[in-house]
Amino acid sequence: MPAHIVLIDAMNLIRRIYAVQERPFHYMDTLSESTKQQIIHNTKIHTIQAVRKILDSQQPTHILAVFDSKQPCWRYQVYPDYKKGRKKMPEHLEQSLVSIQDALLDLQVDSLVSDDDEADDLIATLAVKVALRAQDVTIISTDKGFLPLLCDHIRVFDYFNQRHLDEAYVRDKFQVKSTQLIDLWTLSGDSTNKIPGVPGIGQITASKLLQQYHSLKGVLNASDLKNSLMKTLDEHKLQMQLYQELLTLKKDIPLGFNLKDIRIPKPVSQQAV
């Protein structure tokens, strides 16, 4: 039986589930302790239900839930404005993560918590290592940052909309290929991560440039651009180098475990929580 490794972007899944459970209480200025505990309880139940559905639909041979480090990752060190303004994780949710990880382990889904890197970098590293062995990987996430990894052996699945974020999705949404996305966001910026891009270049302009010149390098080497655009690009070369570094997921992190460590040993019970 060929291997199929499922990698769950755990905080992407949990925080979206938490947001749905918290939404009915948005009218309240503060949450009581009992309300917080009810939201956490519901979040845990729905997270486990979601992972059960993922196991059923994806039929993995191996599975791992990957969590972010509690400490700011290396991107904040090289670019202090990285994800600036993003809402912090509620303390009561952060304190519940160990309990959720224990519940996942009851489903035979182990968790990996990063020490220094973002979960995205760990997932990218493992996905690429597996794909190089011609084995299949499905990343469970709505994070567009995984889309540059798309290839014959790496897929991205949006659990909440129950669809694969494939090359057709990339072409429809961004008007470029998945291999051009890093260059696209370098030029146009990435509001999710507070990366500004090059002034005056939005997604439409960036996609047209990449359609014509194929890559950021091709754009920078083009001799037929408007003088004003050439000047702007030249003035922002150092910033673009930084943006590319921030946007590119690391693929060489030492992981310290083997695939056999995350193999599902036996069918998972489908009993309700």
UniProtKB/TrEMBL annotation:
SMART domains, per database record: 53EXOc (SM00475), HhH2 (SM00279)
MF GO annotations: 5'-3' exonuclease activity; 5'-flap endonuclease activity; DNA binding; magnesium ion binding; potassium ion binding
UniProt-annotated binding residues for K(+): 187, 196, 198, 201
GO terms classed as biological process: DNA replication, Okazaki fragment processing
Cofactor(s) listed in the protein's UniProt record: Mg(2+); K(+)
Positions of transmembrane segments: none
Record bears the keyword Manganese: no
Keywords per UniProt: DNA-binding, Endonuclease, Hydrolase, Magnesium, Metal-binding, Nuclease, Potassium
Co-factor binding comment: Binds 2 Mg(2+) per subunit. Only one magnesium ion has a direct interaction with the protein, the other interactions are indirect. Binds 1 K(+) per subunit. The potassium ion strongly increases the affinity for DNA.
Pfam families, per database record: 5_3_exonuc (PF01367), 5_3_exonuc_N (PF02739)
The family this protein is said to belong to: Belongs to the Xni family.
PANTHER family for this protein: 5'-3' EXONUCLEASE FAMILY PROTEIN, FLAP ENDONUCLEASE XNI
Function as written in the Swiss-Prot or TrEMBL entry: Has flap endonuclease activity. During DNA replication, flap endonucleases cleave the 5'-overhanging flap structure that is generated by displacement synthesis when DNA polymerase encounters the 5'-end of a downstream Okazaki fragment.
Protein's UniProt name: Flap endonuclease Xni
